[in-house]
Amino acid sequence: MAVKLLCGFDEAGRGPLAGPVTAGAVILPEDFPVEILNDSKKLSEKKRLIAEKVIIEKACWGLGIVDHKTIDQMNILKASMYAMKLAYENMIQKLPAWLSSQNINDCWISAITDGNSLPDIKGIELRCEPKADANYPCVMAASIIAKVERDKIMTEMDALYPAYGYAKHKGYPTAAHRKICHEIGPSPIQRLSFKY
């Protein structure tokens, strides 16, 4: 008998003025310690990093990353959905080995995304739900791995472009970010389709 698995999707980085949008896709095992999870925005950085380590160790997961140039070409909503599709494709590559580790011989996947838009993924039952990142542990887990990865990228970008303060604000539209963009111009990872 096929086991039904729920895959959660979420993204990080729709609001920033610079850098990529990232997405996670996660299937949690039955014995996952869900008490360590929450919407990534409600966890401290320390708790996110602890949770991410457990997710990577125990879950079947994938990441998708779409850069600032692609965001400008296709718009942020489409780029976010594309990042989810890439995350799912990355996760599916890991699925056979993970299923074997869970002693699951056959499965079918349904998936849920946070918000009100769906990625273009064929062959699975897919639905969206506002506030899913507050109600479904697999979506919380997806939001955590997406957020941790994006923060890591933006910290790396801070080392390349230190004038912009990316390690501090991660490219979000803070007053400091807008001010430096107006003073010295956009950074090489600026989303030029966004008003800064």
The main pleated sheet reads as: 5 strands, mixed
Count of helical regions: 7
Chain oligomer state: single chain
Structural class: alpha/beta
The helix content is 40-55%
Adjacency order of strands in the biggest sheet:
3-2-1-4-5
Spatial shape: elongated
Strand segment count: 5
Tell me the β content: 15-25%
Uncertain runs with pLDDT below 50, 5 residues or more?
none
How far do the termini sit from each other? Answer: 54 Å
Over the alpha carbons, how many angstroms does the gyration radius reach?
Answer: 17 Å
Q: What is the ordering of alpha helices and beta strands?
A: EEHEHHEEHHHH
Average pLDDT, rounded to a whole number, is 95
Describe the secondary structure blueprint for this structure:
Layout: E1 3-12, E2 21-27, H1 45-58, E3 60-66, H2 68-74, H3 76-101, E4 107-114, E5 125-129, H4 132-135, H5 137-160, H6 166-169, H7 175-184
Parallel strand pairs: 1-4, 4-5
Antiparallel strand pairs: 1-2, 2-3
